[in-house]
Amino acid sequence: MVTSGAYPLRRTPTQDRASRQVERILDAACAEVVERGYDAASTSGIAKRAEIAVGSVYRYFPDKRSLIQAIERRNQARYTEAVSIRLAEVTSWRQAVDVTMTTFREMHRTDPGFRAVVLSGLGDPDLETQPGEYDDQHAGEFSELLTQRFGARDSSDFRLAVTVSIAMGEALAHLADRLPEADAATVLAQGLPVLYNLLAPHFPA
């Protein structure tokens, strides 16, 4: 289970029971936003879904927006874990690109937390402005994988290319998931080679 250390809280849980309650609050917030939309979702509704008093929600999260921001950080941790497991089996860097794309799309379709963030239209602004988080974190981890296992030449240009490919890949995945299956396949067939071309110059011929 992802611990509450993955995101900021108003109060840090000191016992396993409290940590489980935080996770239950976030799960309830996901369900509330997915079912009702961000504007209609309420803290009282989230508390009811989590089967706790509304004061228990406010103990950890000051408002609805902070809940969505915490969900986004939890998404980051879950995605990183899932990708790491799958990347252990890949045998080429292009396959590694495919795996990250496939995992992102699967989690977007099946994990209510991913859908909740998209439906809210909100993200954690800190994840977009502070170095070392979100795309920067993905870029660092993916760059290390590509250099250590597949011989990519590490450099600032290479890491920037990885960051660009991640941002473009996420946009590509979101577009594909809005389209009928046949159109989505076409989008991916056209888009993935663009990502390969961004990275290819940094690998041995």
Automatic annotation (TrEMBL):
Keyword terms, alphabetized: DNA-binding
GO function terms (MF aspect): DNA-binding transcription factor activity; transcription cis-regulatory region binding
InterPro entries per the UniProt record, alphabetical: DNA-bd_HTH_TetR-type_CS (IPR023772), Homeodomain-like_sf (IPR009057), HTH-type_TetR-like_transc_reg (IPR050109), HTH_TetR (IPR001647), TetR_C_15 (IPR041669)
Coiled-coil regions, chain positions: none
UniProt DNA-binding residue ranges: 42-61
Residues annotated as domain HTH tetR-type: 19-79
Signal peptide, first to last residue: none
Protein name: TetR/AcrR family transcriptional regulator
Source organism: Kribbella antibiotica
